């Protein structure tokens, strides 16, 4: 059963916390949240959910939080994230979710820019980061920690446990039962309630401001265009600092009556998905790339009979999907075989990875190879490609059902207009567009003009109205011979290989394309161990000749799918994975191209100077603060 459309229309006049309170009154005893603790799923009803949010709001008021204050949330994917965020916003405070993987020095900069008065922290590790920078974040008056493990030795009035905050809230509610409703009623749909960080691929992340009405509009778009019903399951697997986790966590799930599910830990995700059976997943390409790689590697090691059924089923699936792309109907024998192999192969396979009940799966955040979509759709997963920007409220473009085109990102969601400027930049206009950048009006004026947002991406609309994204305007490269190319186009295809985790290509102003390759350590390690290849570390494995031959074979195979002038000619298997802590990736996994190019510029130049190996300098920072420098040699490999 779906939420009544008339009720959804009424929600446009309210704030997110006001809508939440109304939904909790109606849905009361139905499940709202599930969290797995020690192998057991615990359910929180909408009624209990509201109580938690109320007590957080009361508790925050007792520690001094007022309308317009800023509250930072440094919490994992846990129910407490939602309690903290909705409780803060019910008081009229503005929230910002931060990646728990941030280093202390990064937190210091971000918390000061945001002006946080209160910080919710996950555990002792996060608290220790905050204590180490306490003198630098003088505006933070209180830190609320969620997990009390290891905190019994901390006796500091600056710290308070989440449980104690709830107790303060209960006491405050007894003294003034009407306070929450009074604060709730003061909220206006035009009020800013949320800030979200941009990825920061080209510099310091910006804080993007949203009002309640922006979040509500984007949530309604998804509800209108997707088969979402009350009680459908959403599984929270991407950091809450990402815009789409926000849109679904405090937007879609609340307005539609979905259940938010929180896995026990990343390592149990596949098992937890099998138990819950998520109805929808919208996440980053890396998740789908790893899923496809995991399936392929597992089936390579399967027994002869299973592998035969899998290979045959994949051929049938690919044939059916090809006809779907060509908009051709399936003949009877293919319809029969597709249903038969859905029972024998596709459904059991998807069930093993927790995806058998998915109505709609979407990849977004950065480009993905069409081959990943082709593969997963061929085994029965309804995977589509989406496109969006933080400033536009997240993903605003997605493939409609029955209109899958591998090289496009689909069509706009309702109430969204997309057009192409004279210089081929993609422009978007929608009610969910951001209010502005925090303390940066100048940049807002540069990107937002007459209601149209400049995305910074180059693309075009095909004859059927599908959007084709070529790449970031500032990242388009041109070879010396004049051929232009998007590095994303090549990198996404390289990452189709189950043995390649990350790829970064170069070639701007050069005669040919070169690249760095990072191994998928789990898959390459398994491959090497199955062949009794000795190694010690990732660095050692990457420089093994037999492993280099494996990757060269993969790159040569993928090169055949790439236009001749922009095929990769030389590669280096990097001695380490690119890492957000080394500022090589953003916290959402995007490559910081300029930073990587500058950091490893000697390696890049050596690939164009005919050398067969190069030397890389590594700086290692130990826990005691001691810094040492290590020099390593890496081989330059000729692909063609």
Give an overview in words.
With 640 residues, the protein is of the alpha/beta class. Among the domains are: 209 residues, ANL, N-terminal domain (Rossmann fold, 3-Layer(aba) Sandwich); 74 residues, Luciferase, domain 3, CATH 2.30.38; 159 residues, GMP Synthetase, Chain A, domain 3 (2-Layer Sandwich). The strands form 6 sheets. Strands 7-6-5-3-4-8-9-19 form an 8-stranded mixed sheet, sandwiched between helices. A 5-stranded mixed sheet has the order 12-13-14-15-16. α3 packs across α7 and α9 packs across α10. The N and C termini lie far apart (57 Å). 46% of the residues are buried.
Brief sketch in words of this structure:
By secondary structure, this protein is an alpha/beta fold. The chain has 22 helices and 29 strands.
Question: Which descriptors would you attach to this protein?
Answer:
single chain, about 650 residues, Rossmann fold, Luciferase, domain 3, GMP Synthetase, Chain A, domain 3, 5-stranded mixed sheet, about 25% strand
